[in-house]
Amino acid sequence: MKKKLLTLLALLIVALSLASFAAVNVNAQVETIYSKYTASEPDLDGTIHASEWVDAMCYEDVGDDEKSTIYLMHDDEYIYIGLKIKDSTHNVDDWISIVFDEGDDGGHGSGSGDGVLTDEQEDWKGITGNGDLIDGYWDTKGTLSEFYYSGFGVSVDFEAAIEYHVNRWEVEFKIPFQGDDGDPDDPSDLNIGVDDAPRMEIGLRDLPAGLIECPEGADYHDPSTYFELKFDNEPPTISNISHSPTTPRPDDKVAVYASVTDDVSGLKSVTLLYSTDGGSTWSSVTMTKIIILDAGVEKYKAEIPEEASGMTVQFKVSAEDNVFFSAESTVTSYTVRILIFGMEPIMFYGLIIGLVVVIVIVVVVVVLARRPKLPTAPPATPPAAPAAAYCSKCGAPLKAGDIYCPKCGQKLS
């Protein structure tokens, strides 16, 4: 039982490692190949280990008779090229070469291929079955134009290792973008950058079978038959995400728009992911490219289906390019609501109540203003002051209640 368990575990580990490595494989004859940025330099030992080349872009079964597999990656200074080329016979006199068409700027290459072999412009890097390195360039000597080299190990500015494995050669190259072996006038030095697009051909001089070239049907004398090589450093860019309607109702589908670009290898897929359970699970919808006519711009669009009132929906945009770099936007959300005349119900009913209160106040004021006035009573007349009294005998003024005149003593009647 323990032995079976260990066997299953070993098979699982192998499967996972192969799956991670195969994630960047392309099984097709192609015209343009891409190198992918890496921060990890492989060990050059003539054996292509999955863990060391996991960042590489891999092209399987390409070239003549589909005998070649190519691994491509680069950092800021070097391009790393791994090769597996099927060969049923081990012969140390075989050699594997890489040819670069760099164009013509009057110096030693301009970086991007122009489909023409120009003297002292194009570079040739090779390694023999014995591990001898060869560094050469295209030139015309007398009437013969060909790739020339000074000799094994002469003026070499790159590193490489080779091993034969049962039925194939495995080779690993480390080539500087800007070659410098101490001779500034050496035309065999590569002179390219990550913004350039040189053309590249790979060949195996297989003795006694002959020459196996890659891409299929290529002729190293004709750079128009080479691969176009491009360098991809970054994942896609996702920006300008929006959705409509901004406050959806239960019967609304929500359209999501995004600007998504990739400057080098191009976009492989753009996907809308949305969640209705707080991000625990995500549903996916493929986004399609559209043109916004009034703005004249390209965007990607997908729709989220209708959801119930009160549901909060989270969404984000994911993109992957043709070298399997991926990018993902930040999460955006909206809540589905029932609106009345474009307003939240609480706002609508609050507005209605406010209007009713205002109307009641106005009615009360108007009614009170129009109410007839009651008649008012005339002002009360103050009692008349009593008439003045005088003594009939002496004429002296009298006070109320006097019985006798206070002056003459006359009894008052």
What does this structure look like?
The protein has 413 residues and is mostly beta strands. The chain has two domains: 16-232, Immunoglobulin-like (Sandwich), CATH 2.60.40.1190; 237-335, Immunoglobulins (Immunoglobulin-like, Sandwich), CATH 2.60.40. 11% of the residues lie in helices and 38% in strands. The longest helix is centred in the last third of the chain and has 26 residues, at 345-370. It starts with a helix and ends in a 15-residue tail after the last strand.
Rg result: 49 Å
**What's the number of extended β-strand segments?**
25
* Unreliable residue runs: 1-23
Helix % is 10-25%
Task: Give me some keywords for this one.
Immunoglobulin-like; about 40% strand; 14-stranded mixed sheet; 2 helices; disordered N terminus; 25 strands
Brief digest:
By secondary structure, this protein is mostly beta strands. The protein has two helices and 25 strands. The strands form four sheets. Strands 1, 2, 3, 4, 5, 6, 7, 8, 9, 10, 11, 12, 13 and 14 form a 14-stranded mixed sheet that branches. Strands 17, 18, 21, 22 and 23 form a five-stranded antiparallel sheet that branches. A four-stranded antiparallel sheet has the order 15-16-20-19, with no helix packed on it.
List the helices and strands and how they pair.
Layout: H1 2-22, E1 25-27, E2 32-37, E3 57-62, E4 68-74, E5 78-86, E6 95-101, E7 123-128, E8 133-141, E9 144-149, E10 159-165, E11 168-176, E12 199-206, E13 210-214, E14 227-232, E15 237-244, E16 254-261, E17 267-275, E18 283-286, E19 288-292, E20 297-304, E21 312-321, E22 326-328, E23 332-335, H2 345-370, E24 389-390, E25 397-398
